[in-house]
Amino acid sequence: MMIKLFLVLLAIAQTTWMNESFADSHINVSYPQWPPYFYGKQDKKGFGRDIIEQCLAQMKQDHSFKYMPIARANKTTQMGLIDLNVYSKKKGREEWLHYGSEPLYEVTYNPVTLKSKSIRLSGLKDFDPYRIGHQIGMKYSLEYQDYLNSRRTQKGVDEVRNHESNMRKLLHGRIDVYVSTRSDIEIMAKQLKVSDQIRVHDLEIRKAKYYLTVPKNAKNVKEPKKLLGALDSCLKKMKATGSYCNLAKGYGVPCP
């Protein structure tokens, strides 16, 4: 009990100290259409955006949210035109990104098929007979990424710009399987009222933690490590006090 109280007080103290550094600069924050973490242009914000907004407000950090599809957000962030974005850790990204140390959330990537087709998937070779959907900009494990590249040479991959297109193509029989985050699949199926028609397989293509990041060439952030340190402190405080889990429950996100 005393250790938990100490961690809460430490997080509060760190956040208070960090508050002094960022009130004079405006930053641009990118967000995609990725329920339940980000809801794109919809009125609902999403778990990730809610957390970021609360932390930036506590830090008195002036900011604007910019909606962008994943592929465009990647390019814009690499150009330094976006100051704060959310990324998992992958080889090569640390060459152009500063990462925070506290995960914003963790997700699993799983295949989805129609129940009516009785498809069994226990490994990548099991995908061979099937037409695969892929959302442009989505990143997976290296093994699955290599597999997708090999299937592209056989014209066995159907590429789209958003998740809903993948789901609708699956429902209409134009593809047999695609991979996305389990939470996103379940929410999309619920929105389209087809939850009883799809099957999310237990096969984990990827499990990843996502962090707040600042590009090394960000135009508006002079001290990225201090900004990320303040955000890390805010996340730790929210997790220690229970506000993180309370918000997570409202979005159906697992509490760590």
Automatic annotation (TrEMBL):
InterPro entries: Solute-binding_3/MltF_N (IPR001638). Keywords: Signal. Residues 31-251 form the Solute-binding protein family 3/N-terminal domain. The keyword Signal applies. It comes from the Bacteria. Residues 1-23 form the signal peptide. Pfam families: SBP_bac_3 (PF00497). This is Polar amino acid transport system substrate-binding protein. It comes from Pseudobacteriovorax antillogorgiicola. The keyword Signal applies.
